[in-house]
Amino acid sequence: MRMEYVSNAALMRFVRGVATMLELDLEQLVRYVAELSPYCIFDNCLIHDVKFALEDSVMRIYSILNDTDAWDAYSASPGPSAYRYAATVALWFYLYAEFVGGHILLSCPLFGHRVAAAITEFLATRTAYPLRDAMHDTIIKTQKRKRQSEEEVLLHLCFPSSY
Fold it and tell me: Where are the domains of the chain?
């Protein structure tokens, strides 16, 4: 178990907030956040390793948040998939606060205004499908112009070609 990662004060602030808003057990949510969080975003790793950890995190967040049934189907009686979804939201907040504008480009659609508004709507309404729609619409518009896969568009728009 990678519980040492969640000793990060900034991350724990987001985890507590998500747990409170979604009425989830904090300890259980912490476990899922620890499983999802790559070590290099919390420690002094080489910049090359941080880049790969962030790319992996962005792709993982995108994938999990696209699976709205993971939350919508199980939110009434939170199971593992609901906790994993909520943990992903907490990790999204952490990456947004700590890395967007630095290691992650401001142009990254996963952290754009529409997705940020949808994350807020998710916390207020506990309905995940508008979040998936916001991410999908934002990336699909770019994908059609660039003729790339969603994943390629996401990585291209989120990370500079070199550090």
Answer: 3-158
Pick the more confident residue, 151 or 16. Answer: 16
Whole-model pTM: value is 0.87
Take residue 55 and report the two structure tokens written for it: 């790319």
DSSP for 8-39? -HHHHHHHHHHHHHHT--HHHHHHHHHHHS-G
Whole-angstrom distance, CA of residue 32 vs CA of residue 86: 9
The partner residues of 100 in beta bridges, in order of sequence, read 104
- How big, in percent rounded to 5, are the helix, strand and coil portions of the chain? 75, 0, 25
What is the per-residue pLDDT across 63-107, written as a single tens digit (0 to 9) for each?
Answer: 999 988 878 776 666 788 899 999 999 999 999 998 898 889 888
110 Cβ partners below 8 Å, 6+ apart? 58, 61, 62, 92, 135, 154, 158
How far is 99 from 102, CA to CA, in rounded Å? 5
